[in-house]
Design brief:
By secondary structure, the protein is of the alpha/beta class. The chain contains twelve helices and eleven strands. It has a domain of about 200 residues: Rossmann fold (3-Layer(aba) Sandwich), CATH 3.40.50.970. About 40% of the residues are buried.
């Protein structure tokens, strides 16, 4: 979508500035999207991928302006269909690095079916879902992730819908990589995006993002400096689930095989704490269910496992058939098999 997409020599190092387009960034002042854009642009040079081999595809919504601001190729597609467009592109051009940028409304409402099947197929896409728990572009209606009882322009007496958990949805669909981060935690967001970028297969990253116009402070319970140490559980592979200002709280499984918070030194010791393992699907599922007020909010990589990617399998199958049967003939195909003549 932007100019100057001339292939760059591998010897020529790119910088964050090289990934900034010439378009004015048009989000509301203070929007969390700015922080996400900055970290994505910061990550891109690390990947060592030429700009002409990177594509950002979006649907409709505030987040969907994203491709305009990346100095790469991109597509602003139609509502909820970004995963479908991206699947087609990745399947036909497997050498490209394809990213999908969507929101909780675009990706989980009208686009929910496309999202589920993209993750189920394990298409090698990097999917960033900005979750602000509101419809921002259409001026403040409740979304699939808005909490029960949420009062908005479309639910003046409070929403009676139970919200989706994007992480639970992605795990249920079989995504091989599921993570969560926050717009106001730049180092954590960057490391999470880095992990997603290097994953082969569908990499789903839910990003808690503040909409300061229509849903300001939606995540203040876990982002404010005074509370975040006790309200966030930072997931680190191979390390126990410990949190708190004094790092004195941990999570273990009780006799009923249910997670519980306990105080180190008072209720038990560190050996009882669960050690995070992103290859453990049962653990990932449990972590995705942890939520306030009884538990801190987990951020980091919930699940990361290897499974053949859909696009790679499809291309291997195509090569195999061509080797065995040769190039096909469309006209013969149309007239082959079960055909009838209607008189």
């Amino acid at each position: 979508m932007s100019a100057d997409l001339i292939p760059v020599s591998q010897k020529q190092a790119l910088t964050k500035k090289d990934f900034q387009s010439d378009q004015d960034v048009r989000w509301c002042p203070g929007c969390g999207d700015y922080a996400i854009l900055a970290q994505v642009q910061k990550l891109m040079p690390e990947l060592g991928i030429p700009r002409h081999d990177i594509v950002f595809i979006s649907g409709i919504g505030c987040s969907s302006r994203f491709p305009y601001y990346m100095n790469t190729y991109g597509m602003h597609s139609i509502h909820g269909r970004a995963p479908a467009f991206a699947t087609g592109l990745k399947a036909s051009r497997p050498e490209l690095s394809v990213w999908v940028v969507t929101g909780d409304g675009d990706g989980l409402s009208i686009g929910g079916n496309h999202m589920i099947h993209t993750l189920r197929r394990n298409v090698d896409l990097k999917i960033l879902l900005f979750n602000n728990r509101i419809y921002g572009l259409t001026k403040g209606q409740y979304s699939p992730t808005s909490e029960l009882g949420k009062k908005t322009k479309s639910t003046p007496y409070g929403s009676v819908d139970a919200p989706f958990s994007p992480a639970q949805l992605a795990l249920g669909a079989g995504s091989t990589f599921v993570a969560r981060s926050v717009d106001v935690e730049p180092p954590h967001l960057l490391s999470t995006l880095r992990a997603a970028a290097t994953h082969k297969g569908s990499a789903f990253v839910e990003i808690y993002q503040n909409c300061n116009v229509f849903n300001d402070g939606a995540y203040s319970y876990m982002t404010e400096k005074a509370v975040k140490a006790d309200a966030q559980l930072v997931l680190e592979p191979g390390k126990p689930l410990v949190f708190g200002k004094a790092k004195d709280k941990a999570i273990r499984m009780n006799a009923k095989l249910q997670p519980e918070v306990f105080t180190l030194g008072k209720d038990g010791d560190l050996s009882q704490a669960i050690v995070h393992d992103p290859t453990n699907e049962t653990l990932a599922w449990m972590l995705a269910h942890l939520a306030p007020p009884h538990f801190p909010t987990p951020i980091g990589v919930f699940r990361s496992v290897e499974r053949p990617a859909y696009d790679a399998l499809m291309n291997d199958q195509e090569k195999d058939v061509l080797a065995k049967k040769g190039k096909g003939d469309l006209q013969k195909l149309l007239n082959a098999g079960e055909t009838w003549v209607v008189k």
